[in-house]
Amino acid sequence: MQYREKIQYSAAYIQEKLDKIQAGTVALITGTGLGGLTEAIQSPCSIPYATIPHFPVSTVKSHAGELIHGTIEGTPVLALNGRFHLYEGFTAQEATHSIRVLGELGIKTLILTNAAGALNPSFATGAPMLIEDHINLTGTTPLRGDNNDSWGERFPDMCMVYDEKLRKLAIEEALELGIRLERGVYMQVMGPNMETPAETRMYKTMGADAIGMSTCMEAIAAHHMGIRIMGISCLTNKNLPDCMKEAPLEQVIAQAQQSSAAMTKLIRSILKEIAQITD
């Protein structure tokens, strides 16, 4: 079966289960330890990934692996509670299967969240960081191989991946709520190993403010399909190469869960106003 046919089968199954996905529905992808965002969804309808034809299933314990449909602050949402990583063995296309499905379902706006390590020493641990740009250091891309012209052009421009109006809205809502919102460049590496002190120095020199193992693949695929994107990282630890400390997964998850209240509050506020700039 061809790649696009698999995407269409997945989308058709979801469409059937959810009856109808409203115009203006915003998609969310929750990162490590940030699954609590889905608790804000009202009248939720859940579909386990394992039941969706051709849909990948995450092997990461902190990712629930379910699609949840409902509303937040009156805005219809479709939340992916758990994502897929290259380090799990997925190809770039497999890791972005869910993004292609969202595009087939007619989603026009996507909010990506993740847990990331801060490379910028001035950034506060536990604070959210608005992604203004990214660096893909994985050595691959979901656009590799034959291009599907119905999704997007062969050589998509990448000068504005993260929507300017959505970023402005996030800044305004953070100020209104009194939430410290860092702004910077996110870098995706392959993983699953954490970075060494020497790598940390290199990544910082290259212009990255935060680093993680997801998001860039998803952003590339979504941008290719014309989906508007907002990206927010939860800074779970600070990488200082001259005094590096271990950052085990349990610590990352714990910090993300601790900081999820502010993230949830911010995203709820964004969703309350998002229709004004996405209609």
Automatic annotation (TrEMBL):
<comment type="pathway">
    <text>Purine metabolism; purine nucleoside salvage.</text>
</comment>
<comment type="function">
    <text>The purine nucleoside phosphorylases catalyze the phosphorolytic breakdown of the N-glycosidic bond in the beta-(deoxy)ribonucleoside molecules, with the formation of the corresponding free purine bases and pentose-1-phosphate.</text>
</comment>
<comment type="similarity">
    <text>Belongs to the PNP/MTAP phosphorylase family.</text>
</comment>
<dbReference type="InterPro" id="IPR035994">
    <property type="entry name" value="Nucleoside_phosphorylase_sf"/>
</dbReference>
<protein>
    <recommendedName>
        <fullName>Purine nucleoside phosphorylase</fullName>
        <ecNumber>2.4.2.1</ecNumber>
    </recommendedName>
</protein>
<dbReference type="GO" id="GO:0009116">
    <property type="term" value="P:nucleoside metabolic process"/>
</dbReference>
<keyword id="KW-0808">Transferase</keyword>
<dbReference type="InterPro" id="IPR011268">
    <property type="entry name" value="Purine_phosphorylase"/>
</dbReference>
<dbReference type="Pfam" id="PF01048">
    <property type="entry name" value="PNP_UDP_1"/>
</dbReference>
<dbReference type="InterPro" id="IPR000845">
    <property type="entry name" value="Nucleoside_phosphorylase_d"/>
</dbReference>
<dbReference type="GO" id="GO:0004731">
    <property type="term" value="F:purine-nucleoside phosphorylase activity"/>
</dbReference>
<keyword id="KW-0328">Glycosyltransferase</keyword>
<feature type="domain" description="Nucleoside phosphorylase">
    <location>
        <begin position="25"/>
        <end position="272"/>
    </location>
</feature>
<dbReference type="GO" id="GO:0005737">
    <property type="term" value="C:cytoplasm"/>
</dbReference>
